[in-house]
Amino acid sequence: MEPRFLLLSDVAAELNVSDSQVYHMVRSGELPAIKIGGRGQWRVERARLEEYIQRKYTETAEWVQNNPLAERDTE
């Protein structure tokens, strides 16, 4: 059974980005997370990570649709 909550380092590994990038995503509100415990450790719920990934797929698809590759002159 997969854990419900992930460490920021787990999220970074899952997304193949640095820990500091994930920390910035969490602090900016781009990726929903919670602070728990006396030391205020960040945790990301797996479901929220999956929602984030799906949102990024949608955003990317919209960007690709609005920014098609320029046709190259084949001559």
Automatic annotation (TrEMBL):
Record-linked Pfam families: HTH_17 (PF12728)
Domain of life: Bacteria
Record domain Helix-turn-helix: where: 9-56
Name of the protein this chain belongs to: Helix-turn-helix domain-containing protein
Stored SUPFAM superfamilies: Putative DNA-binding domain
